[in-house]
């Protein structure tokens, strides 16, 4: 039995169980942190963990807070990563019975990436965006940070509109030095320049990857009979004959994907169109393999 089959994965009860199933399939694909500087300039503090150099303990900090902190220097500091999860109303959508919603898929993907990054001692932070409402968890590299990430991802419910600019502004404020930024969104933000605000993070010398999450029914529009469509980010609804609008709808969703792909390519941002019925382990293995090749 393949636990990573999307339908079986959907039956697992929690984000933690789902992420564990995914991670077990991709541990061999761990990437190398690509931005380990060569200088010895002081970068930041981190809480002491067994195995850290005793000579780097900051005794002044210990005297103030009665806890051990280690000074990290640029050549010892691994990747700093920010996971940006779009938790707007449209992310609640689920088409075929028995698969994850876009938001559930994003939560499992974010949890899996978090575990893989923290396991190799990279610092991971979390940004959950519900319209202009932002929930932020600062980056930390300790494995004890992983349960905190899971706590924020469990039982997420999408609310509000997709606001890519608000998410980008939050990350730009927090990522004060070069970082890896992973964006998990359906990109249903049609305000002018919204996607550009995300891709501008690359121009700030960050490494940016966009996972464009779409449900298979959003991509295929398989509806036949008269159907009532609800606006998941507003209060509107529309009852139509799907056969009458199928061609124009498919043209629009295709154009959205093409625009997003092109904008990312032009900004040197990695773009991945992700169907929520796709096995997560295969997605991650393919993604991590590309990162390995790029870091080599």
Could you explain the architecture of this structure?
The protein has helices spanning 6-11, 15-26, 59-65, 102-119, 146-153, 164-174, 194-203, 216-220, 242-266, 280-295, and strands at 42-47, 69-73, 80-86, 123-130, 133-140, 180-185, 207-214, 227-230, 237-240, 270-275. It folds into 2 domains: 6-36 and 79-295, Rossmann fold (3-Layer(aba) Sandwich); 42-74, no CATH class. The chain is elongated. It has 10 helices and 10 strands. The model is unreliable at 28-42 and 73-77 (pLDDT under 50). It has 296 residues and is of the alpha/beta class. The two termini are 35 Å apart. The strands form 3 sheets. Strands 5-4-3-6-7-10 form a 6-stranded mixed beta sheet, with helices on both faces. A two-stranded antiparallel sheet has the order 1-2.
What is the number of helical segments per DSSP (H or I, 4+ residues)? 10
Q: Which word captures the global form?
A: elongated
What is the chain-wise order of helices and strands?
HHEHEEHEEHHEHEHEEHEH
Q: Write out the strand line-up for the largest beta sheet, numbering strands in chain order.
A: 5-4-3-6-7-10
CATH fold category name of the largest domain: Rossmann fold
Kindly report how far apart the N and C termini lie.
Answer: 35 Å
CATH top level label of the largest domain? Alpha Beta
Structural class, from helix and strand content? alpha/beta
Determine the fraction of residues in helical runs and give it as a percent range: 25-40%
The tally of structural domains comes to: 2
Reported for the largest beta sheet, the result is: 6 strands, mixed
Q: Spans with pLDDT under 50 lasting ≥5 residues?
A: 28-42, 73-77
CATH architecture of the largest domain: 3-Layer(aba) Sandwich
Oligomer: single chain
What's the total number of strands?
Answer: 10
Overall pLDDT: 81
Radius of gyration computed on alpha carbons = 20 Å
Give the percentage of residues in beta strands. Answer: 15-25%
CATH H level, superfamily name of the largest domain: von Willebrand factor, type A domain
């Amino acid at each position: 039995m393949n636990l990573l089959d999307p339908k079986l994965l959907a039956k697992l009860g929690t984000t933690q169980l789902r992420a564990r199933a995914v991670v077990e399939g991709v541990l061999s694909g761990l990437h190398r942190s690509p931005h380990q500087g060569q200088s010895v300039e002081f970068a930041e503090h981190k809480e002491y963990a067994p195995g850290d150099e005793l000579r780097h303990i900051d005794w002044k900090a210990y005297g103030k807070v009665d806890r051990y902190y280690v000074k990290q220097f640029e050549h010892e500091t691994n990747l700093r990563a920010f996971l940006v999860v779009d938790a707007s109303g449209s992310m609640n959508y689920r088409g075929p019975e028995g698969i994850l919603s876009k938001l559930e898929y994003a939560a499992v993907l974010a949890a899996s990436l978090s575990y893989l990054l923290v396991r190799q001692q990279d610092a991971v932070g979390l940004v959950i965006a519900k319209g202009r409402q932002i929930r932020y968890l600062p980056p930390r590299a300790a494995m004890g940070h992983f349960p905190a990430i899971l706590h924020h991802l469990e039982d997420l419910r999408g609310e509000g509109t997709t606001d890519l600019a608000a998410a980008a502004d939050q990350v730009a404020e927090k990522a004060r030095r070069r970082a890896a930024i992973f964006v998990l969104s359906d990109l249903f933000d049609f305000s002018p320049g919204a996607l550009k605000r995300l891709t501008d993070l690359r121009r700030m010398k960050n490494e940016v990857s966009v996972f464009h999450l779409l449900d298979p029914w959003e991509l295929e529009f398989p509806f036949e009979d008269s159907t009532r469509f609800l606006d998941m980010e507003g209060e509107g609804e529309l009852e139509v004959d799907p056969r009458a609008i199928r061609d124009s709808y498919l043209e629009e969703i295709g154009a959205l994907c093409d625009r997003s792909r092109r904008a990312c390519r032009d900004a040197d941002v990695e773009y991945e169109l992700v169907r929520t019925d796709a096995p997560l382990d295969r997605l991650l293995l393919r993604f991590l393999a590309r990162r390995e090749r790029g870091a080599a």
